[in-house]
Amino acid sequence: MNEIKIGLIGLGTVGSSVLKMIIENSDKVQTITGRRLSVKTIVVRNVAKHRRQVPKDVTLTTDLNAIINDPEIKIAVEVMGGIHPAKEFVTALLNAKKHVVTANKDLIASAGEELAATAKQNHCDLMYEASVAGGIPILRTIVNSFAADYITEVKGIVNGTCNFILTQMQQQHWSYDQALMKAQELGFAESDPTNDVEGIDSAYKMVILSQFSYGAHIKLSNMSVEGISTIQQDDIQRAAEFGYTIKLLGISRRIDNGVFAEVGPVLVPQDHPLATIHNENNAVMVTGEAVGETLFYGPGAGGLPTANSVLSDIVSVTKNIVLGTTGHFFNNYQSSPSEIGNIDPKDVKYAYYLSLKMLDAPGQMLKFTQIVTQSGASFSQIVQTKTDHQTARVTVITHKISKSQLSDIKRALRKVNTIALLAAYKVLQQ
Ligand SMILES: NC(=O)C1=CN([C@@H]2O[C@H](COP(=O)(O)OP(=O)(O)OC[C@H]3O[C@@H](n4cnc5c(N)ncnc54)[C@H](OP(=O)(O)O)[C@@H]3O)[C@@H](O)[C@H]2O)C=CC1
Ligand SMILES: N[C@@H](CC=O)C(=O)O
Ligand code: NA
Prior knowledge:
The longest helix is centred in the N-terminal third of the chain and has 21 residues, at 13-33. The chain has 13 helices and 17 strands. It is an alpha/beta fold. The chain folds into three domains: 3-132 and 303-332, NAD(P)-binding Rossmann-like Domain (Rossmann fold), CATH 3.40.50; 138-298, Dihydrodipicolinate Reductase, domain 2, CATH 3.30.360.10; 345-427, Alpha-Beta Plaits (2-Layer Sandwich). Helices cover 36% and strands 27% of the residues. The strands form two sheets. Strands 7, 8, 9, 10, 11, 12, 13, 14, 15, 16 and 17 form an eleven-stranded mixed β-sheet that branches. It is elongated, with a radius of gyration of 24 Å. The N and C termini lie far apart (55 Å). α1 (13-33) packs parallel to α11. The model has no long low-confidence stretch (mean pLDDT 95). Bound molecules: NADPH dihydro-nicotinamide-adenine-dinucleotide phosphate, ligand LTNE7NMQ and sodium ion. The site of the ligand N[C@@H](CC=O)C(=O)O has 11 residues, from α6.
């Protein structure tokens, strides 16, 4: 009676750390909750795979029914990843009255509302602290500590793999491929790292953060999402010469009656707190009307840090089981759809870093300047260097312009075959 049995789905980087933490920390959890946690069954894809540290009394199987049909198992922990079959698994577990803890942002960003409704119908808990920023307890902090404040902006570094790659490219001058390989080896990257490096993993996290911060569901299809796979060493060096560090940032802001969110490489001033976040660490800056700017920092990826967030959910569910208070939403904040509108691109304004390759011939710079001027934009910094005897590399930082002005510049440049726009990244200002 004093024991809570757990079913684990997945025994990879995160799953094996969850197992280790449950085994090693059950005494402390028992003193806090009055219940002893133990893992009874683990579902994996391949039981024949060599694994260390699975205790003899734990069943290892490929059959989810071993958890679904076991009345002793009260909490299921989904750490297998991906949307399918994870969605079907979690739905079946909730319908079998199992409380579910997951680290799966792909799943929560895509089907979180539907799964939360299924959990509520079954009087079950569904928690997912580990899905955003790994080891940083950001979701519960927003739910509890920002409950009464009006959040106006959430931004930050929410992908450990990208931040690790950019740090290695900046500090060790590693190649992109070398840094990605190391991030995979260290267990930070997803099994297919495309979502990491193309910004999609960060976008999933911004969808969840926006849901918690504004009570609004932003669709991935409404977000502009750009990753780091095309960033060149040259951009990193030029940004540094201008006094900036390139980071992959997720930004979501309230503008008038709407919320806009996007993900992309951003030039961050070298003395800004976000520029000092290195390797797999993440940082989330939450701005509230009352509190002002706050910053939450910690490891964004890796087995044990992520497992700590999973355990925080397991402990919360356990407390709810003990108190008989299960079946409430993890995030109760819902704004009415009329409060959240689409944002006019004219209202989203940033300074931009533009990197261009142009024919090194008279008149080219004038052509570029005319295009920028026609859009109503202007430069705050500009550097021109020769790349070879035929082309020049021009990098500029504009004054603040709207997204529609940027689109005008891009459109006009596409028509000029002697000038190529290589990169256009936002510039964060202090
Ligand atoms: N790694 C990290 O730093 C973080 C990861 N996450 C999230 O945690 C989750 C797990 O990530 P991670 O541990 O890195 O992933 P891994 O690839 O290391 O592990 C996945 C595990 O799930 C099992 N699995 C995969 N598909 C199935 C299936 N169809 N049926 C049964 N078992 C299956 C695999 O089995 P087998 O061992 O037999 O191959 C493996 O044990 C993901 O949602 C990820 O996004 C969240 C925060 C940080
Ligand atoms: N692959 C992700 C893992 C955590 O969510 C990352 O690198 O951040
Ligand atoms: Na978290």
